[in-house]
Amino acid sequence: MKLALNLSACAFALAAVATAPVYAQSQSEATDQVDETVDSNVIVVTAQGRAQVLSDVPVAISAIGAEQLQQSGTSDIRELNQLAPSLLVSSTGNEANGSARIRGIGTVGDNPGLESSVAVFIDGVYRSRSGNALSELGPIDRIEILRGPQGTLGGRNSSAGMISITTAAPEFRFSGHASATYGNYDQLRLEGGINGPLSDTIAARIDGVYLKRDGFYNDVVNGTDVNNKDRYLVRGQLLFEPNDGLSIRVIGDYSKKDESCCAATFVQPEFAQQARVGAGLDPFSVPPPGAPALTSTQNPIIPVLLALGQNNNALTQSTFNRDIYVTPGRSYAGETEDFGASVEVNAELGNMNLTSITGYREYSNFQASDTDYTQVDILYREPNENAGAREFKTFTQELRLQGSAFDDKLDWLIGGFYANEKLETRDNIRFGTQYGAFAPCRIVNAVNPALASPTSTGCLSAGGRAALAGAFGAATPLIFAGLDNLATINDRGTVLDVYNQKSENFAFFTHNIFHISDKLDLTLGLRYTNETKDFNAAFTNDNTMCPTQRALFTPLLGGPLGGLAAGLIGLSCQGNSTSELDGVTLSDSRSENEFTGTAILSYKPTEDLLLYGSYSRGYKAGGFNLDRSALTSSTLANPALTGDTANLQFDQETVDAFEIGAKYSTREFSLSVAAFRQQFQNFQLNTFNGSVFLVQNINGCSDDLGGADSDADGTTGNCAADNVKYGVVAQGIELEASINPVRHVNVSMGLTYTDTSYENDLVGRDNGTALDPALRLLPGDNLSNAPEITATASLSYTPPIGNSGLTGLFYVNARTTSDYNTGSDLLYGKEQDGFTLVNARIGIRGPDDKWAIEGWAQNLFNINYSQVAFNTPFVASQQTYSAFLAEPRTYGLTVRTRF
To answer: HEC states along 33-72?
Structure first.
């Protein structure tokens, strides 16, 4: 019923403007030739490395033009969610970790060692991670969203899809634009640019954007706001066209962000009904209806937090109350710099066309954090250049040569791609000043919560020690000493961890369209990719208590007190934070070779109708988990002695995709339908288990594992290597339609049904090793952030106002989704109910659009929803959850002009 109401609301709101005219820029000469033969309502894209009419391209693609982007208020890729139902862009603990998903498939988590499942290109240049595009984009000419694996063209391989953004290029006429926006949360956005010819053959353009806005969270303790915006972008361009057969476009840009991000609140049952205390404090079982909230004192860890200074409001207020209670003096401050340059050359060489795109980019980010998201000082990153930092230096070169042969029966394309990416990550994450008071209580709670005394050394008062006298036999004094030792781990841990990864990628590809007849085409594409990654790491750590505890309690691991001993070692050495790694350096390398490609048969029974069927194989490179916690399978062993870089490696992800579709297009109406099935092997998953990030490949097993993949035993559930198969399947149907029912009215709609789910019998790597027990809820369930039904719609009405030359603007778009789980481990209590988001814009425009005044609102009805729910770090007897909230309603006024 809820979904039906959401769909009705979406249909009522109508939403996303019928696609406005879009013209390819990355191959200007070829586009000009196409433009001469089509009318102004035809959409031209370059998804197949050529300028083609959208309705003639036998692939699933959404194209969004400049007018629609302006009307929708799109300024970064996150706002594309409202326009493309198969796309979902979200961010988590750091905007640099933003993730794009297409058809429910995307890269999850905060580890830059994993490449993006959805590749992002801006002006043909690859951005190293999709989160790098979560910034102001400036004036945009068009955006193409390609759905499904991109294993032949598109520069870098991607297993789920691609977002290609083309910015507005220089023109040989003098022009300019400016706009100013003021909105709630004291939002101020200024944008301007100027364009013009420098000579008959050279045109130049410069654009700039400045945005500042208060944060959505109120840090009650430190008197500041979090999740603010303070950023700017400058982009300059030159276009050199000495003759009709040569075009050279040079682009340079610089952007910077000084922002505090990203805060979170505790998940409450009023938002996620199953965020409740379960039987036996087991987070992997469905909690009984009406059970106390996870943040109630029935969860034994909560009285510990309260005793150590946690404000009770944070534990009892609504999930969407944006007052946060941060540790005094801790900060979410961060800084991001992104800059680069590119040169695109398009040249006619006789009957052939050559395209060369050369790019160099540097991207850096650091983000401090109160990493436990509580008022108790358990875990933190100091605000400096080493706080969860990442730096990318990326050089890319793409060459394409295209032509025709056999009296235009063959449209051929060959090319090559090279990328050299240097990634450095640095971290300074440390146990907080109250970790020593908090951590022993985890142990005492496991013994008897009634004895926990958080303000006493080792979380045991004198009475508590008396009550436990002799409880552990002869080892009792040792257990007490272990608790007291644990109490000394305050402001210890990482001084500086540095990871370096150098990646070299080269590929050769060909993409050929055979015109078998006037109506029947066969497309064949093939790509060979070689990927090499060199890894090294160096650690500096001052947690000397970890080796002390390890020495004391390792002898007990095999006996009746083994569980208690393991807990004392584990909490003393969380995430392999130990001085045993101090001064240790590691290195390793890996190399991959992969063939990918596509085969498409398309048929046009009429000029307006295209039918097609396709197969494609995609690939996403493997790599290294840039996290020392993965050096060992548990913290019980000394990582300096038993740690193995092989444990850091994860394998390349591959996908076999099958699709059939149809596209119908006339001036007044267009409709595209696609049915797809995508089978992923070695699916790369990154999950936070409450203590560390797990990076694991996911595969299926053709044998029945008898539920061994769904139990808490990590030694069961293995599969013979010969019986390993794909572990993730995405299948469904997509519909997109646009209609111009009357003059000045454009309507578009989209609907995606996708079943993106894990297979029933799951294993880890393709050698058949067992699935990590932390992932035991995955078998047979949907992936996180993968709703089965998503619908978008929009309405644009731009009527003339009398004979004044003025025009009005009424624009509304909406997106509705069904229920889904936002946690990558699919734990109960991380669910998000279905909801509908509506954006709207109304305004008046001057003659020839020389000026405009527009009022707008994003999230018009102030819908509360979560981007991601996650395990609150270390806060468990039963694990509690926190959530990164989506933006509330924003609104404002925009004034723009152009000449």
So the answer is: HHHCCCCCCCCEECCCCCCEEHHHCCCCEEEEEHHHHHHH
Quick check: bond before 10 cis, omega within 30? no
Q: Supply the pLDDT for residue 872.
A: 97
The residue type at 640: A
C-alpha distances in Å from residue 539, one per residue of 427, 631, 634:
10, 12, 18
The DSSP symbol for 158 reads: B
Token pair for residue 110?
């905060």
237 and 249 Cβ atoms separated by less than 8 Å = yes
Distance CA 364, CA 370 (A): 21
Beta bridge partners of 757: 729, 782
User: 392 near 422, Cβ under 8 Å?
Assistant: yes
What is the distance of C-alpha 562 from the center of its chain? 40
As a 3-state breakdown, the chain gives helix, strand, coil percent values, each rounded to 5, of: 15, 45, 35
421 DSSP β-pair partners: 394, 503
Whether 585 shows a pLDDT value over 60: the answer reads yes
DSSP codes joined into one string, 671-683? EEEEEEEEEEESE
802-859 pLDDT tens trace: 899 999 999 999 999 999 999 999 999 999 999 999 999 999 999 999 999 999 999 9
- 67 and 47 Cβ atoms separated by less than 8 Å: no
Joined tokens for residue 495: 């001084």
Question: How are beta strands 333-349 and 105-106 bridged, if at all?
Answer: unpaired
Mind listing the pLDDT tens digit for each residue in 27-77?
Answer: 443 344 334 333 445 667 776 777 778 788 899 999 998 888 888 888 888
Tokens of 568: 């004392």
Measuring CA to CA, how many Å separate 19 from each of 22, 668, 793?
8, 11, 12
Instruction: Name 364's Cβ contacts closer than 8 Å, sequence gap at least 6.
Output: 336, 337, 338, 389, 390, 391, 392
Q: What is the pTM of this model?
A: 0.92
Contacts of 722 (CB under 8 A, 6+ apart): none
Exposed, middle or buried: residue 305 (CB in 10 Å: 0-12, 13-18, 19+)? buried
Closest by Cα among 385, 346, 463 to 50: 346
Distance CA 860, CA 814 (A): 10
Amino acid (one-letter) located at 804: S
Q: Are 581 and 539 in contact (CB under 8 A)?
A: yes
| Single-letter amino acid, residue 177 | H
DSSP 717: -
Yes or no: say if 872 and 881 are a contact pair by the CB < 8 Å rule.
Answer: yes
Nearest to 762 by CA among 775, 747, 752: 775
Cβ-based neighbour number of residue 712 at 10 Å: 10
DSSP 545-608: HHHHHHHHHGGGTTSTTHHHHHHHHHHHSGGG--GGGTT-EEEEEEEEEEEEEEEEEEEEEETT
User: Using the 8-state DSSP alphabet, how is residue 833 labeled?
Assistant: -
* Amino acid of residue 35: D
b/e per residue 374-409 (b: at least 16 CB within 10 A): bbbbbbbbebeebbbbbbbbbebbbbbbbbeeeeee
Strand pairing report for 202-213 and 187-197: antiparallel
Type of residue numbered 838: V
Shortest CA distance to 824 belongs to which of 774, 876, 750? 774
Separation CA 174–CA 203 (nearest Å): 9
How many alpha carbons lie under 13 Å from residue 398 in its C-beta half-sphere? 25
DSSP state of 247: E
Strands across the sheet containing 140-147: 61-65, 140-147, 161-167, 118-122, 125-127
Cα-based distances in Å from 146 to 101, 597, 780, 834: 12, 15, 27, 25
Angstrom distance (rounded) from CA 836 to CA 151: 34
The C-alpha angle 564, 570, 576, rounded to 5 degrees, equals 165
- Is the CB of residue 708 less than 8 Å from the CB of residue 655? no
